[in-house]
Amino acid sequence: MSVPHALLALLRERPKYGLQLQSEFELRTGEVWPLNVGQVYTTLQRLERDGLVESHGEGERSQKRYRITSAGVQELSGWLRTPPELVPPPRDELVIKVLVALQVPGIDVHDLLQVHRRHVVEVMQRYTRIKAEAAEEDVPLALVADAELFRLEAIVRWLDAADVRLKQVSFEAPTQGADASLEPTRTMEVSQ
Amino acid sequence: MTHALELRQVSKIYGRGPNEVHALLDVDLTVERGELVAIMGPSGSGKSTLLTIAGSLENPTSGQVLVDEVDLSTVSRSDQARMRRRSIGYVFQDFNLLPGLKAIENVTLPLELDGVGSRAARTAAIEAMEELDVADRADRFPDELSGGQRQRVAIARAIVGKRELLLADEPTGALDSVNGEAVMRLLRAATHRGVAGVVVTHEAQLASWADRVVFLRDGRVVDQTAAPPGPESLLAAGERQ
Question: How close does chain B come to A144, measured CA to CA in Å?
C-alpha cells in the first residue's frame, strides 16, 4: 500500500494538518491499516522535498498545514491508473515452507497443510467478525476486509489444491539419510 | 450442559466387503444453542453425510446422534419424522422451494404438515419472513424471486416455528459472493437468536462466518478452530504508536 499516494488523495480534497491526515487515513481504511503519526510526518517531508505538497505555518510540525501542488495532483492521477506489480511472484513464505517440508524426512505434509489451513481460517474468522460487527454503511471497512478475506481464501484454496495434488501422486517424504542432493533442482520463472 | 446436537462416535459405511466405503469414521461433534458451526472439507470428505445423519435423514452405521438430548436411535420412525418437521430446519444449495406454492405457502408448509392451524402458521411464517426481510415477497411464486430472495425464503422455512437445529448444505453455492455473504449473515443472526446451526461448505470465506470451523478429511474430524480472540487483536498487530 502506498502511504504517500493515500496522503496525496486526502490532500486533494483540501489542505490539512498532519494529525488530521492520520485520523482520516485510518477512518477510510477501516482502521485495518494503522498508521502512526511519525510515519505521516516523514512521508509529508518527503512529499514536500519532491515538490508534491507544500506546507504553510511556522514552528512545530503539528502547526503546519499541507496543500497538494499541481505536480502532486498529476502524480496522484498517474499512480491511480498504474497497474500494481504482479510479476515476478512474491517469495511466499508459506509456499517455501511447504516446498521445504517435501524434502524433510518424517514430516507429514498433509498435517502441515492442515496446521496452516486452520491458522488462515482463524484469521479469516477475525476479519469476518470485523465485517459482521461493522455498520452497513461502512463501505471502506467492508472493502478492506473483503480484500484481506479474498487474499486469505486464495491461500486456503492453494492449500486445498496442494493436498489433492500430493494425494494424487501419493507423495512420500524422503526417508532419513536419503541423499536429497541427487535430486535435480528446478526453478520456475515467470517472465514479464 | 445440554447440547442442541451431539454426535458420539458416529460412523457411516456404505456398501459391503471390498466395495465398503467409510463415509464417516468415529465422528464426535457437539453444537450448542446459539452457536454456528461450519464443517469444512474437500469433496468426498463426508460433509454432506454428516449433515444428513445429524438431520436424521439417514441413520449411522454405528454411534449415537442426539438432538436436544434425545437419542434418535431410541425413537420410532414416525417420531423421527415429527422431530424433523418440528425441530430441524434444512437449507439446501438449490433452495428446494416448491414451485407451485407462493413464498409464504412454502414457509407455512412444515407447520401445516405438523398440524398447526393455518392462521397460526401464517402468523409464524410472516414473522420468520420479516426477520429475513422477504415479508413483502410473501405472495410471489419462487420463479418470481431472485436467487438471493429464494434462499431467504428457504431460510425462513427452516427457522419457522420453534426449531432447535438449523442444517445448511452449501447454502450459498448458487449465489454470487455478495448475496452469499448476505445469506451467511442471516444464518449467523438466526443461530445467535438461540438455534444451533451447522453449515457445510468447502469455501473458507463462508466458513469464516461460523463461530467454530470443524475440518473433515476422509470421514474423520481432523481439526477445529480455536475460539476467536476478537477482531481487536488484528489491529493490535499493526504498528500503531
Answer: 13
